[in-house]
Design goal:
This protein has helices at 53-62, 65-71, 79-98, and strands spanning 13-18, 24-29, 34-40, 45-51. The protein is α+β, with helices and mostly antiparallel strands. It has one domain (13-98): Ribosomal Protein L24e, Chain: T. A hairpin with a 5-residue loop joins strand 1 (13-18) and strand 2 (24-29). The longest helix has 20 residues, at 79-98. It is elongated, with a radius of gyration of 18 Å. The mean pLDDT is 95.
Length: 99
Amino acid sequence: MSRRCTLTGTQVLVGNNVSHAKNRTKRRFLPNLQNATLISDALKENVHLRVTPRALSTVDRAGGLDAFLLGARDANLSPEALRLKRRIQRKIASAAQAG
């Protein structure tokens, strides 16, 4: 499993440990990934994603998972989030035709 946020794409960063004597050694900055269950209003189901706390606050600010995904660019989303976005778009389109 990759260390990458499903929604925002935040991933591992690389930098240096710098000692008091200014010796530099490589290190990795890992993202704070959490397993979260988000509710999709259009699909009426729970979705389990691996996201950062910052992504959760962004989803809340956008007005929910569906609104966040529909407003996000495809290039910024993971393949799993893209599949979810397509499912939501199809569901909304079929609901608009039916109603």
